[in-house]
Design brief:
CATH architecture of the largest domain: 3-Layer(aba) Sandwich
Number of domains: 2
Shape: elongated
InterPro entries: Homeodomain-like_sf (IPR009057), HTH_RpiR (IPR000281), RpiR-like (IPR047640), RpiR-like_SIS (IPR035472), SIS_dom (IPR001347), SIS_dom_sf (IPR046348), WH-like_DNA-bd_sf (IPR036388)
Oligomer: single chain
CATH class of the largest domain: Alpha Beta
GO biological process, one term: carbohydrate derivative metabolic process
Keywords: DNA-binding, Transcription, Transcription regulation
Order of helices and strands: HHHHHHHEHEHEHEHEHH
Pfam families: HTH_6, SIS
Largest sheet: 5 strands, parallel
GO molecular function: carbohydrate derivative binding; DNA binding; DNA-binding transcription factor activity
Strand content: 5-15%
Number of helices: 13
Length: about 280
């Protein structure tokens, strides 16, 4: 993972001093090669040891290792950016693609293989899967529930959380509740999670890569890294990265079981038949 992508994705989980270092690096990445660890510390008014600890916490051997890695990342980014002479539309398109690619790269790295396997296994074994998401997350919740249904997995999705609470009350051990919540702070979702745990079901959350109340209640947590300095772009990056993450889960479900794959083919054929004149 690019060090700049890693810093962005981890920023919300950092201490105040660490965020100051992170922001300086993100805002002055091009100039970092001219700074020693002591000069960086002086610029921020902190100790040199704080800088060293910051780099080691990110997984680097030391500050020189971080500086070298940032330089390499900038070089790759320069190669990815659109060439001069393109139209403004082409430039916007290419830059947006680069931003989305970075977010997807960070998201893949954050969701470890063991977590993805556990999520796919839980969904595949559940008798029923309950799916919910507030606001814009409702779109992703409904889309994912529809895909589960194509695979022959019983999926129940409601925007009405009162109805969802009633349905969750019918769950059995091993059933799954998957909650889409960008910021993980919806109070009703915390209650739904508790209801599901009481029924000995499993709770899967999908949210931003931040320390949020809902994520702390999850048996399994999928996270989305989608930081961007431009607020209007950040929202787009989050939506596309979340979609890509759930696409990966769907593909694993589809390819991991021949029976599910056959059900998908049969259901797609049925839908096509219904649409024919």
């Amino acid at each position: 993972m690019s060090p700049l992508v890693k810093i962005r994705s981890e920023r919300d989980r950092m201490s105040a001093v660490e965020r100051r270092i992170a922001d300086f690096i993100l805002e002055n990445a091009q100039l970092l090669r001219d700074y020693s660890s002591q000069q960086l510390a002086n610029a921020l008014g902190i100790s040199q040891s704080s800088v060293v600890k910051f780099t080691q916490k990110l997984g680097f051997r030391g500050y020189p290792d971080l500086k070298y890695s940032v330089g390499e990342a900038i070089g790759r980014t320069d190669e990815e950016l659109p060439a001069a002479g393109r139209s403004p539309g082409d430039t916007v398109s290419a830059e947006l693609w680069v931003r989305k690619t970075r977010a997807e790269e960070a998201t893949r790295a954050l969701n470890e293989a063991d977590t993805m396997t556990a999520v796919v296994t839980a969904l595949g074994r559940a008798d029923k899967v309950f799916v919910a998401g507030p606001g814009e997350d409702d779109h992703h919740a409904r889309a994912f529930a529809a895909r589960l249904a194509l695979l022959g997995i019983t999926a129940i999705c409601h925007a009405d959380l009162g109805r969802m609470a009633t349905d969750v009350a019918t769950s059995r051990p091993g059933d799954v509740l998957i909650l889409f919540s960008e910021h993980g702070r919806h109070p009703a979702f915390a209650k739904l999670a508790r209801y599901m745990r009481e029924r000995r079901g499993r709770v899967i959350t999908v949210s931003r890569h931040t320390a949020n109340p809902l994520r702390s209640m999850a048996d399994l947590a999928l996270v989305v890294a989608a930081h961007d300095d431009a607020s209007h772009v950040q929202a787009l990056v989050y939506q596309s990265t979340l979609q890509h993450l759930m696409d990966i889960v769907f593909v694993h479900l589809c390819e991991g079981d021949e029976t599910r794959h056959q059900r998908l083919v049969e259901n797609l054929d049925r839908i096509q038949h219904l649409l024919e004149p």
